[in-house]
Amino acid sequence: MCGVFGVATVSKCDTPFLPAAYTYTGLYMLQHRGQEAAGEAAWDNGTIRTEKRCGLVTTGLTKDIIQSLPGTVAIGHVRYSTTGESVLLNAHPHYRTDRRKVAVVHNGNLPKSAELRKELEAEGVEFESTSDTEIIAAMISRSTAPTIEEAVIETCMSIEGSYALLVLAEGKLIGVRDPFGIRPLYLGRSRNERGEEFYLLTSETCAFGFLRAETTREIAPGEMLVIDGRNRFHYQLPVEAKRKLCIFEFIYFSRPDSVMMGQWVCEVRHRLGQNLARQCKPVNLDKVIPVPESGNHAAVGFAEASGVPFGYGFAKNRYLGRTFIAPDGWDDLVRHKYAALEPMVAGKRLAEVEDSIVRANTTGGTVAMLKDAGALRVEVEVVAPPVKYPCFYGIAMSTRGELIAADKTIEEVRDYIGADQLNYLSQESTIEATRCPKDQFCMACFDGDYPIPVPSE
Ligand code: SF4
After folding, report:
1. CATH tag for 263-447 (out of 3.40.50.2020, 3.40.630.30, 3.50.50.60, 3.40.960.10)
2. Mean pLDDT along residues 335-361
3. Which among 177, 247, 388, 397 is the best mutation to test ligand 1's pocket, defined by most ligand atoms within 8 Å of the CB?
4. What is the 3-state composition of the chain as percent helix, strand, coil, each rounded to the nearest 5?
5. With 40 labelled, which of 12, 160, 310, 413 sits at a CA distance of 20 to 30 A?
């Protein structure tokens, strides 16, 4: 999971309406989607300039860096690694000049990128990174197709996997989404200081709020949108498109103030909690507490539907990122991230609401903290089904061995995390909370039904 953001203006503007400055703000609002690196590229009168740094948007991309990226179009990225190590060379944008000058940012993953890389290397293509995105950038750049639009379509037809791509080339901002729409992409519109309308593309609509941009629409699965000054051109990849949005966008990844498929993420999470309370009908509990922050809305819904009071049970260190997207040091990060609020939990029978259990290191740690703080009973309420299968589409859980529920019963997971009770939400109730049809989602990590072919190992 990464975040992408792009801006195409109709004419060159001064700071603070510099497209790179807008992109910086957009990336800042998408920081939750990746904390390993941040980068931008800007188009200025035939030149593409690229800057990327390891770390957060605010620490990596300084004002001087942003001001060194003048131009009319900019794209940016916050990175969370799935293919390629967490090093600067793998940060986006990837800039290639093989035949055309292109810069590419990507949210998603190509499960068979190793085969593609080998084929290109056999043709003499050299790569500076181990990222699958550089492969995409190289394919677009090398294409002999007469137009950049055709080069992007040709590349998309040669790759398989999840992608929400932004391509910067020839003064155009191009956004394209894989035919299953696994990763999200939204179009927005705003005005510069001269009142001229311009367009933005983002992984999540929360990025538009701060920029006072209006969400125009979702980029459809398999759609390519080209923004060229004042004009927008729409293309559809020549392949059947079938929406399969990653269900984890609702459960965990996205910010609660984003809207996906017409639904506020915060409202879906609230309903996830309500549905779980109705499903497991808890008794003899004193308090419902969230594991902050992705469990917050679900815990309120759970408390409402169960009649058990809501309260806070953890203090969270705000200066540590999301543990799910941390590249290493998981266990230490969890222990440094949360602390139990002893006066709030001691002597209480608690429902601890958690968005999901993947490896169980977070949940095992939080249950132990509550018990050490004097909780009498800890029931873990998970507002998602058990994660049993790896993800090959951009989430760092790529082997069954990493997943606690892959080969354990619910009782065995309960004992492993030290809880007194463990409830998971059913797949049907998870879908019901989204108010969207079941066939619109990828849920492969719950049921193993992968929409795009994945490696056999
Ligand atoms: S396998 Fe799971 S995490 Fe991966 S895209 Fe599908 S629903 Fe999302």
Report:
1. 3.40.50.2020
2. 93
3. 247
4. 35, 25, 40
5. 160
Index of the ligand 1 atom closest to the CA of residue 389: 1
* Contact predicate 232/221, CB 8 Å: no
Q: In the structure, which protein residues have their CB atom closer than 6 angstroms to any atom of ligand 1?
A: 182, 246-248, 391, 393, 395, 442-445
Asked if the model's pLDDT at residue 366 lies above 60, the reply is: yes
Q: What is the mean pLDDT of residues 299-310?
A: 98
Give start and end residues of each alpha helix (H) in 163-229: 206-210
In this prediction, residue 67 carries a pLDDT of: 93
| pLDDT of 83 | 64
Report how far residue 409's alpha carbon sits from residue 414's, in angstroms, rounded to the nearest whole number: 9
Ligand 1 centroid–CA 260 distance in Å is 16
Instruction: State the architecture of 3-243 in CATH terms.
Output: 4-Layer Sandwich (3.60)
Q: How far is the CA of 247 from the centre of ligand 1 (A)?
A: 7
Residue found under tokens 């309120």: 300
- Quote the pLDDT of residue 155: 98
Positions of E strands within 178-319: 186-191, 197-202, 214-218, 223-228, 231-236, 245-246, 259-260, 263-264, 287-290, 314-316
> What pLDDT, on a 0 to 100 scale, did the predictor assign at position 327?
47
Whole-number average pLDDT of the chain: 92
Confidence (pLDDT) at 454: 80
Angle, in degrees to the nearest 10, between helices 132-142 and 148-158: 130
Catalytic residues: 2
Asked whether the predicted pLDDT for residue 393 surpasses 70, the reply is yes
Q: How far is CA 442 from CA 174, 204, 361, 449, in A?
A: 25, 18, 25, 8
| 84 pLDDT more than 70 | no
**Per-domain boundaries in the chain:** 3-243, 263-447
